[in-house]
Amino acid sequence: MAARWNGTLTGMTLSAGLRVAAVVAGLLSVGAALLAMREASLLWAVATLAALCGHALTASGAPRVRWGVAAGAGLFALVTVANLRWHGEQAADAGEPARGQAAGRAYLLESWQDGMDRQRLTAGGLALGVLLLWAAVSALPARGGRRGVVTTALAVAVLAWCVSRVALTPGEPPLPDLFAAVWPALLAALVTAGVLAWSGRRGDRRGLLPAGMVLLSLVAVRICSDLAATWTSWWTLVKPAEDAFLQPGIMVSVGASAGGALQVSSAVETAVALGGVGLAVVGALRAHSETEGRQPS
Question: Using an 8 Å Cβ cutoff, are 224 and 167 in contact?
Fold first, then answer.
């Protein structure tokens, strides 16, 4: 009995320590993004998600919940590793600029296509990770109250906002082709909105799980908007010119370099993404601990 108690206490201490480590690594990731240190920001983001995965594995509770939540955080970490690898390849390619108009145009098209592939991968990872979180907590009993109505209304608003952002993308792309190009991001938005609507009835008392899903829904909307804008730019460059003799070129900024200014938007995006995952993971584990011993009705 004493050995079991000591083991439980050690596990709780390790879990709490990993949660603190996740907070510290997350703050460092946001700080690196603010200073335009993209590679460092992604590395600290991987550390944050890995710590959240370890926190879930060492927390107390049913294995189904712990392993499901850990799998979700682990998948987010793998997607971040893929983005880190993509960033390294992009930085290496940037060191060898293409010469000539045709080569520059081909390089720009390839860069946009790689960016769209990265955004689709991120969207797919977001959808699958959220589904793993949902599967882990789906067995919890539903709670009463009006929180479920609020989260459902928020989910509907998120979906409407996402569709409108895609449909109102600047330019004149054919909408059927545009929606077909961004379907992975739309699927991620649909999944996160669905789990957001569900989280109000099965979340923890403090509302950490619904808050995390709100932030992840915002991430899905941003991915939809960015992918739609990237695809529209790509389509504008590759479509046949009509009644015009202008040739597409490459726009070059003559302003201050990115490294000379604080990247506030990048830092906010990083904080929203990592905060969403962290709140969802902690909220899911807390919801289980609050209902432990109760049988689903």
Answer: no
